[in-house]
Hints:
Elements: H1 3-18, H2 29-47, H3 52-61, H4 67-78
Amino acid sequence: MCETVMTHLFNSYCKPILLRGVESVRLSRKNLSSLSHSWYAIFWKLFGVNDVDCINDILHFMGYRPLATKIDARRIGLL
Length: 79
């Protein structure tokens, strides 16, 4: 399966599960790091890249926001 399709599937199905209820709790830096590492591990394996900046660039060019930005947007939406 192509990387574009896999990325879309991960964003559609895995990300909501990973971020469920995250807007209702205060995340420590360690918690955010753990969530981000889990999210980026998918793309490290999918694209064979182990640099967070490269993964962020790939996701940006595919039209997806970084995980921390998504968490902040969900928190603002809750207020």
